[in-house]
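Fresh eyes needed here. Kindly weigh in on this sequence plus structure tokens:
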Amino acid sequence: MSLAPISTKILAVIDAALLAAGIAMIAWSPMEIAGDAESRYRTLDEWMASGHVNNTSYSFSGPVLAAPLWKLGDTPEARLEYVDYFNLIVFAVAAICLFAAFREHLGPDRSGRFLLLLLFATGFPHELQNFNNEVLSSLALGCGLIGLYASRRLARGFAGGAIVLATVNMPGLAIGTGLALLGVVERTRKLRWLIIPALCAGGIMSEAWLRRGSPWLSGYEGNAGFKTPLPYSGLPEFSYPFLLGLISIVFSFGKGLLFFYPGAFVRIRPWLRDETILNLQRAWLLAVTGLVLLYARWWSWYGGFCWGPRFFLFAALPSCLALSVWSAGARSILSCLAASAIIGWCLWVGYSGLVFALSDLDICSNRNYRLEAFCWYVPEFSPLIRPFITARALTAWEENALYLFYAVYLRITLRLWLQAVAGIVRAVRAAPAAVGAWLREARL
């Protein structure tokens, strides 16, 4: 009897246990509805209590889905607590959908790696503690784009609906959605998918019309931040120089995609031949490109005073897909060691967002955010570096979470380390013969 099916089943059980433990870990973490999420909750609370929907700039299509959780609470505090679990529930549902879609193309091992990385090695551990709209939109768009490649018509219909929901809930995705769908059409030669951007535009404009009286009013007219020493601060809307925004979005220490989602810069073709997944990765990266193109000119390209590149949470999907494929397919010593190091860094990204967030970074919000740029550009004030500088003792929950992150790292990189050690041993054993051959050639 072959041992391969048994080992596959064991890995599947381990992956499921780690995922369940990760979701439980976040559920028991300090949950909080703050910042923009507080405004979204107030909109939901007002609608449930009085039937009135206010005209804030934030979409109501996402918060309205949390209405059943709001109903579970019999006091304002209980309602707030229940609603705070909305994004965690969304993630659990999306994880099931992604695993079902990926299993056929990636196999259970790489599918499990992808979900573990998505839950532990991205900005999701941090964002799942809040009620912001990026979680729902990122996961709905990710599931929707892979669903367009499904063989069943019903699945493709649900996929189209998920993409529309994602874009209406986060209109900043509009350009990215359009680019991704153009990529899908170019690969599949199915023009019918071009109706989805039209539905997205119709949904965005309809909500604006119903809430603000005009399909052309987004609620962000004149939106601007505080005036600080930065030369372009205080200017409204799309006033930031594109090139500066592009460089900041990609390379800044406290917000840069290169530091938070490095896997998005890794090519997966060397380790993958499945055309469906290659096309999906291309569509996901096109969506990220659209986000970058839009927000590079937005005055608040950094997402406000928050942990990490909040607007670009969607980049976690292509990043994790690349890392899961790389970690399962790397063969050379250098490739195995590089993958292990990058995965370790990404797990630190997830852990720091979950445990430390913006701890000891008050300097960036004091005096009307006068020195907020410290948290974007200065390494010592990056939320990824700051915990090493202002070290403190961990609580019992934080220690247990750290052990769980260690377990995930071991699960994903054990093969890489074994492969690298075996390669080093082979190289050491072959070294005397290689040196002897070189000496003989030198004598000649």
